[in-house]
Request: fold
Amino acid sequence: MSTNQYFLVNKIDNQNYFIIQGPMQLPDNFGPTSGFNVLEESSPELLSDLTWQGNSNLGFWKANFDTKPDYNISQSLIPNNSLDATSKTCNVTYTIKTLTAQELSERVEVLRSQIRMIRDRYLSLTDFTQLSDVPFSTQAKSEFATFRQQLRDLPNTSDPTTIIWPSIPTLVNINLPPFPPVPTYRSS
Reply:
């Protein structure tokens, strides 16, 4: 399976084009053609102009992506698409935009909410460790109590991009799943 991405482009006239959709992988089927995605390897020259298919104004143009620049939680990455009619490609570059105070506040809250969901799952999975009749040593109970407090404190971290999941206690093996990756504000 190819990792190439394409834009579906509409031809207005010989000099003007616009993007209908993308970036995306080639569809398995397009119009009357099944196995359309196979053209990428067998006949890539057919993709940029679909006249042969009865779609004289359409084509799939390959996307060329610049390297994404680094940005922080108070910024947003904006893709800019530029069509190259000569090579029948779409070049994707990026601009960094500073978020408004409201946008930053919303982004931080979404991040905190994602962290809380994971945190709540691990609190729920370890609730029983604090019951009076659980057959754990005082040291094991204390280790879990500390772990649970560290979990409760996570959403209160001043910068949610810097959190690190606490170490899962090891004195008693209760088969807790490993933590998932820490949520991020970055888009893939």
